[in-house]
Every structure is written in C-alpha cells, then in structure tokens.
Amino acid sequence: LLQPAVSVGNVGQLAIDLVISTLDMTKVGYFYTDCLVPMVGNNPYATAEENSMELSINAEVYSLPSKKLVVLQIRSPFIKNKYRPFCETLLSWVKSSKCARVVLLSSSHAYQRDDEQLLGTPLRYLLTPDLETEVGGRMKELNWKEMEKVAAYPGISNTDKVLHIPGGGITKLLFTESCSEGIQMAVLLKFCSEGDNIPDAFVLVNYLNEWLQLIKSEVNPSSQWKVPSSWRLLFGNGLPPALF
User: Fold this and answer.
1) Domain-by-domain residue ranges, the chain?
2) Does the keyword Phosphoprotein apply (predicted)?
3) Residues 6+ apart with CB under 8 A from 241
4) What is the mean pLDDT of residues 95-113?
5) What does the angle CA 76 – CA 77 – CA 82 come to, to the nearest 5 degrees?
C-alpha cells in the first residue's frame, strides 16, 4: 500500500499523483471516513473529454495487480482532532486487507531542521522494526539517510532524543502506531518549504523509485513520469474554457 501524508507542500500527494498517472492505475474504490474535509471534483487523471467528468472525492483507492500495488490518494485536509481516529481506521483496514507493507510519502518543514539534518541530502527514511529486518540492508546499499532524532529539550539537554517531524501531519502518529502494532511501514520524506512543490514531488517519487523500481530508471528518470491533466490548473493557471 502506497499513500501520502497530508503534509507541508502537499509533496506526498503530488508524488502519488505522478505514480497513479504514470502507471495508469485503475480506481477500484473509495476510502470512506469522516476524518477528512468532504470534497468532490472532476477526474484529476482525465485523458479525454469522455472521462473528464467522472467524479473524484477526498480519499480514493487505485490498484495495479501486475505490480502488487495499491495506492490510497488523499485530497483534502484532516478535520481537527481527527488524526487518531483516521490512523486507527486506516491500520485496521491495512490488517483486514492483509497488505504486506505500507509506504508513506511525506514531507517536513525545511526551516525546522537541526544542524545534523542540514547536512547532505534533504531526503530521509524511517522503517518500523518489522520492516527493518527485511529491507534495512537495502537502504544501506542505496546510501539512504535515516531520519535523525532530535533533542527533546534543545539548548538544555542533548541526551534525550525524540522523533520530530514538523509539518508532517499524520506521519509521526501513523509510524509510531505501526511500530506498536507490528505493521511493516516505511516513511519516505523530503524537507521542503511551501510554494511550488512540483519539483519536490519529482525528487520524492524518484527517491521512491530507487527502491521499488516502479518505472525503469534512466539518465533522467523525472522525464519518465507522466504529469496528470489536473496539474494544468495548479498555482494560478487560468480556468479551462469549457467551464465558462
């Protein structure tokens, strides 16, 4: 199961858009929950006028059996105080559906990094103990950097370290709950700032592809991802004439 966190810059959601669009994944259902702000819109992955008027809602499920891949796309923010109920419902569904593992795409505020996190790549990963035993070696082969823990009381004591993901939305809660419940989960995240986060999405989805090889890696893997039609309306572009 591949899914985004609703986090800074919506980077995970944009990366999921690229995966669904490029792999031409089939919508197989909806994830019904009262924890997300209700919304409805046109098909974000429309390829022709015939399918452009299909409706999409706030949480939908896509599938690609040939790669044993299921994707949950989330398109609206969480209602206040609904993080925990959502995580409980999601992990219950993961268990009942017998998902082998979960990959969560997320992001975190770049300006809140500590000194150690400023070094090197802006990409980080986390693995639950149950997944660490299976793929930890592969992450080391890829020279990936694990998300560092930071001082719980900076400037006072540097001995107590905690996992801190500012701007990460449900990321920390979902990860810690997965650790407690023995669910195999990987978190892939990028430090970023709000703005035009399309470049961040390409960086994050390429990071994911290094591991899972969803598409063939070439000299410029970014050119292999298919941008969904809905992205034409991002960041202040004009409305399509058909709406007038």
Assistant:
1) 2-10+78-226
2) yes
3) none
4) 95
5) 125
Buried b (16+ CB within 10 A) or exposed e, 133-168: eebeeebeeeebbebeebeeeeeeeeeeeeebbebb
How far, in Å, CA of 4 to CA of 73, rounded?
A: 7
Which CATH class, in words, describes the domain spanning 2-10+78-226?
alpha beta
Instruction: Output the DSSP codes for 51-91.
Output: HHT-EEESEEEEEEGGGTEEEEEE-SPBPTT-HHHHHHHHH
Q: What are the angstrom distances between the C-alpha of 2 and each of 34, 47, 63?
A: 21, 23, 10
Q: Is the pLDDT at 216 greater than 90, yes or no?
A: no
- Residue from 220, 214, 172 nearest 67 by CA: 214
Summarised one tens digit per residue, pLDDT across range 126-183 is 999 999 999 999 999 999 999 998 877 766 767 778 899 999 999 999 999 999 999 9
Task: Kindly report the pTM of this predicted structure.
Answer: 0.91
Please name the helix (run of DSSP H) or strand (run of DSSP E) that holds residue 103, with its range, or none.
strand 102-109
